[in-house]
Amino acid sequence: MVVPQRAAGGSEPGQPRKEGHLLDGNGKIYRCPICHKPPVEKVVTNCGHLFCLGCLTNVLQAGPWCPRCQTEVYRVQRVFT
Ligand SMILES: [Zn+2]
Ligand SMILES: [Zn+2]
């Protein structure tokens, strides 16, 4: 007699299942150019580049320049997916 094992016991607390991966043109998951991980909290600069909120905040401490294109960053918006 085989008892089926439960792989996933329903919903796990603290682990909301999200399918909203941000894609970068060719269907690849976008990775932050600073930490090279898919951003958890995404922000977009006025020049249109995406970063982690934390990474960009760190970079902007040194000066308001986009680490991708060196454009002056005067606006940063959260991106919700
Ligand atoms: Zn990052
Ligand atoms: Zn830029």
Word description of this protein:
Keywords: Metal-binding, Zinc, Zinc-finger. InterPro entries: SLX8, Znf_C3HC4_RING-type, Znf_RING, Znf_RING/FYVE/PHD, Znf_RING_CS. This protein has 81 residues and is an alpha+beta fold. 12% of the residues lie in helices and 14% in strands. The protein is built from one helix and three strands, in the order ββαβ. The longest helix is centred in the C-terminal third of the chain and has 10 residues, at 53-62. The model has no long low-confidence stretch (mean pLDDT 82). Bound molecules: zinc ion (ZN) (2 copies). One zinc ion (ZN) binds at residues 45, 47, 49, 66, 68-69, 71.
Task: Summarize the SSE layout with pairings.
Blueprint: E1 42-45, E2 50-52, H1 53-62, E3 76-79
Antiparallel strand pairs: 1-2, 1-3
Bound molecules: zinc ion (ZN) (2 copies).
One zinc ion (ZN) binds next to strand 2.
Describe the oligomeric state of these chains in a short phrase: single chain
The third-level CATH topology of the domain at 42-79 is: Herpes Virus-1
Second CATH tier, the architecture of the domain at 42-79: 2-Layer Sandwich
Mean pLDDT: 82
Indicate the structural class.
alpha+beta
Strand content: 5-15%
Portion in helices:
10-25%
- Gyration radius (Cα, Å) is 18 Å
Number of strands: 3
What hetero molecules are bound to the protein chains?
A: zinc ion
Question: What's this, in brief?
Answer:
The chain is 12% helix and 14% strand. By secondary structure, it is an alpha+beta fold. β1 and β2 form a beta hairpin.
Which terms summarize this structure?
81 residues, alpha+beta, Herpes Virus-1, 1 helix, binds zinc ion, SLX8, zinc ion binding, RING-type domain-containing protein, zinc, Znf_RING
